[in-house]
Amino acid sequence: MCEMITMAAIAGSLQTVGTAVTIAGSLYSGINAYQTANYNAELIENQMATEQVLASVKDNRLRDQMKGEMAKQRLELVGRGVSLDSPTAIVLGRTAAEEMSFASQSVRSEAGARKQELTAEKRMTLARGKSALLKGGFSAAGTLLDAAPDIWPSLKDERVLQ
How distant is the alpha carbon of residue 88 from its chain centre? Predict the structure, then answer.
């Protein structure tokens, strides 16, 4: 009889330990996923900053290149004997300036769209992390509530429930 009580006590202890490990595992998993999401969001933030700098450099290079082309165009016009204040030269200069503005705006628009995309990705990453944290907490709580009557046998007593 004593051996059966000891075996029951050991089984109960093992069940309690198993429950504690399950709870700890759920909490650890949720916390780990949350921390990973925060780290990934930080990486996305760094990527956004890097891409903003790259877009600025690309825009400046494009403008410098187009300014060089415009200067070359002016030299060609002067070389052909066309006055820079002639209607043709003015139209060509205006057209080149509009093209430069359009190309620059295109680079900026692409950078803005990429920033919006990365911002949305960052928000979703953070949301997934928070969701995982909550899921881990609720899973741990559910495990504890399921095991409560076995851990605390007095909860099975109907008089306690009334």
Answer: 52
**Digit-coded pLDDT (tens) for 7-17:** 666 666 777 77
Contact by Cβ (8 Å): 159, 24: no
Half-sphere exposure of 143 (CA within 13 A, CB side): 19
In 3D, which of 105, 96, 106, 110 has the Cα closest to residue 65?
A: 96
DSSP the chain: -HHHHHHHHHHHHHHHHHHHHHHHHHHHHHHHHHHHHHHHHHHHHHHHHHHHHHHHHHHHHHHHHHHHHHHHHHHHHHHTT--TTSHHHHHHHHHHHHHHHHHHHHHHHHHHHHHHHHHHHHHHHHHHHHHHHHHHHHHHHHHHHHHHHHHSGGGG-HHHH-
| Distance of alpha carbon 91 from alpha carbon 86, whole angstroms | 9
Contact between 26 and 140 (Cβ < 8 Å):
yes
pLDDT in tens, 10-45: 666 777 777 888 888 888 999 999 999 999 999 999
pTM: 0.70
First to last CA, the chain: 33
Report how far residue 118's alpha carbon sits from residue 54's, in angstroms, rounded to the nearest whole number: 15
